[in-house]
Structures are given as C-alpha cells and as structure tokens.
Automatic annotation (TrEMBL):
Residues 277-365 form the D-serine dehydratase-like domain. Keywords: Lyase. SMART domains: D-ser_dehydrat. InterPro entries: Ala_racemase_N (IPR001608), D-amino_acid_metab_enzyme (IPR051466), D-ser_dehydrat-like_dom (IPR026956), D-ser_dehydrat-like_sf (IPR042208), PLP-binding_barrel (IPR029066). Belongs to the DSD1 family. Pfam families: Ala_racemase_N, D-ser_dehydrat. This is DSD1 family PLP-dependent enzyme.
Length: 381
C-alpha cells in the first residue's frame, strides 16, 4: 500500500492530472508562490531591511531554500523541532522565536547549536533564570550561544513585559561569557490581523516608537542590539521603515489565506500585493441532500480557528461552506451544483495550521501536477 504522500505520484507530469488527484489534497500553485517569494524579497531589498520568513507557515525545507535563494537572510522557527529540520537541511541563520526552558529542550538547543556552528542559530530568552540555565548547559559548546532578548511587545504571549525587564535581561545575557547577545525580538502577532489599515498602522507605529525608545535606552547604558526582529505579513509594509526593525519575520505572504487576503486590501476591492497560492482540493461525495452537497474535507482538513474555507474553483465563489464533521464539509451552492465526484478547491481560512494537518504539498502548474513535496516539519515540536 502506498503511503498517503505517494498516492498521487503517478499523476506527476500528466496534463490535466490536477483533476484526478486523490482527495483531500493540499495544493500549492507553484507560479503564485514563486511570485510571492520574489515580491517580498524585492520589497525588503528595496527598503534595505532583512527578511527572515517564518517556517511555521510552510514547515518545508524546499520552500525555505527558495526563500533564502531569493534573498532571505535566514528563517524564523517557532519550535525547536522546526529548527532541527531546517539546520539539518543546511538552511542558514535559523532563529528560534519561542523560549526553550525545560531541561530536555535546553539539551536539544545545545546539540543543535553545535551542529549549526557559529552564526548558524539563535535563540530568544525572556527570563534571567532561562539565561542562566542556557549558559550552564553550554559549557562544552565550542562557541557562545547566540541570544536575543524577547520583548512581549504588548501582546505578551512570551517576552519581557516592560522596558526595564528588557534592559535587565540584556545585562544578564551580556554578563554570561557562554552567551552572546545579538539583539531584540518584538513580535506582535495581535497586530497582524487588524483589518482596518488605519488602525493597524497606528498600532504598529506605537509599537515601533516603544521599540526605538528601548533600543536607544539600551545604547545609552552600553547595550547594543545589532538585530531588532519582528513584524509580520500584516504589518510588513508599515514596519519596513527602518525606524525600529532591522528585519521582518513575515511568513504567511508565501501562501496567503482568507483572512490575510482581507487584511492586505488597502481599500475594498483593491487586491492584496500577494496571491493566494495554497488551496485544498476536495471531491463531492454526496449530492442527495436538496440544500447542499457534501465534500470530503472537514475539521481534519482545514484549520477551524479563523472562520470557514472560501470556494476558489469548482463551484460558484458565492457558495457557502460549513464544517460537517471530522472528514466532511457541507457546501451550500450558489448557482449550479457540482456533480458527484466533482472537484471543489478552497482557500484555507488560516494557512499555517491547515498545512500542519497534511503530509504533503501537491505542487501544480496550471492543471498539471509537477511535484509532491513533504511537509517536513509537520508535528515537530
């Protein structure tokens, strides 16, 4: 029996193979993704700011390689497991954006830092105790562990909660000979999805003012933050002004999703600067109900935290999807109903967690399946 990631392999290179895929299938439009990668890289280069895209979006070595080849300075990883995959694949300059605090995680950090070598990996710290634990664990490491102070940025999912705590933590790190202070992380995920651009711009500007003040106060006390990293897809154009950040951690731009497509509209009807490149293809498995058809994609196929999927192809875009169980979706059709076995492709509600529900990307160029790429870091913590 073929593993799930290989069921569709015989269709690679066959014209029209897109319509014969075993479903549900995670689709990646190669042309659209490539244009997104190139657009963001060109945007960052034109503004003289670094780009360190988030791997949490795609969890793919192949996509990370393409981002670096286009000009990214490295990648960001939320989990240590993602970072292990990227470092072992030779992806340069990997930043782990969430603190590693338990003994097992710290041991893995030290092992990975040894493998990555000087300049190959950085971690963030938001507590002096964690800094001390990391320093103690790196006694046998042939080079200092590179560290950024994590600032809560008003969101406080992780990070020091105040400017005073940031400076205190920076001094603690700088005092540890086994640690090397590289900079400051200030990622405000809560700002990325503010739909109203004026409100999003004001919130982002306020955060940048705070960050600039922290950096200036640190400099006056003898602390230099070489790197100031943060921002995201939703604020990438606002935070590229170089008044605070030296690099962007945008990730979702590579795929886009239903929410970001709305967020990045400058005005109603104005398209986003990035294209939707990620879809889930489903098949209609029942047409017996008068009010809807049933497709083979449910809560185990789509993220459920940001609304419902939107129809992209195979049915009228005005059709309305509703979750219908683990493996099924209910599609209330506008216009002509798709036939039994017909294919309906959806824009994902939230790209990152949707990707983590699938084993592979079915990479398409038009109607042709051109490759199948594994979701390399799926489930890696």
């Amino acid at each position: 029996m073929l593993p799930d990631t290989q069921v569709n392999k015989p269709l690679i290179g066959i014209a029209g193979g897109r319509q014969s895929l075993d479903t549900p299938a995670l689709l990646l439009d190669l042309g659209a993704m490539t244009r997104n990668i190139e657009r963001m890289a060109a945007f960052a280069k034109a503004r003289g700011i670094g780009l360190r895209p988030h791997v949490k979006t795609h969890k793919s070595v192949e996509i990370a390689r393409r981002q670096v080849a286009a000009g990214a300075i490295g990648v960001s990883c939320v989990t240590l497991g993602e970072a292990e995959v990227m470092v072992k694949a030779g992806i340069p300059d990997v930043l782990i954006t969430s603190p590693a605090v338990t003994p097992s995680k710290i041991a893995r950090v030290v092992k990975l830092a040894r493998l990555a070598g000087p300049g190959g990996m950085m971690v963030v710290v938001d507590d002096p105790r964690n800094a001390a634990d990391l320093a103690a664990a790196t006694l046998g490491l042939p080079h200092p562990l590179e560290v950024l102070v994590d600032y809560g940025a008003g969101y406080n999912r992780t990070g020091a909660a105040s400017e005073a705590q940031v400076l205190e933590l920076a001094r603690c790190i700088a005092a540890e000979p086994r640690l090397k202070l590289r900079g400051l992380q200030a990622y405000a995920g809560n700002l990325q999805h503010i739909v109203d651009r004026q409100q999003r711009s004001a919130a982002a500007a306020s955060l940048r003012e705070t960050i600039a003040r922290i950096v200036a106060d640190a400099r006056r006390s003898g602390i230099h933050f070489e790197i100031v990293t943060g921002a995201g897809t939703g604020t990438h154009d606002l935070d590229a002004q170089r008044d605070a950040f030296t690099e962007l951690q945008a990730g979702s731009y590579v795929f886009m999703d239903a929410e970001y497509a709305q967020v990045l509209q400058d005005s109603p009807g104005q398209p986003s600067p990035f294209e939707v490149s990620l879809f889930v293809q489903t098949a209609v498995v029942s047409t017996n109900a008068a009010e809807w058809v049933t497709v083979d994609g449910g809560t185990k196929c789509f993220a459920t935290d940001c609304g419902v999927p939107l129809v992209a192809r195979g049915a009228d875009p005005a059709s309305r999807y509703a979750f219908f169980g683990d493996e099924h979706g209910k599609l209330f059709c506008a216009g002509q109903r798709p036939a039994l076995g017909g294919r309906v492709e959806f824009i994902t509600p939230h790209c990152d967690p949707t990707v983590n529900l699938h084993d592979a990307y079915h990479v398409v160029d038009g109607d042709t399946l051109v490759a199948i790429w594994p979701v390399d870091a799926r489930g890696r913590h």
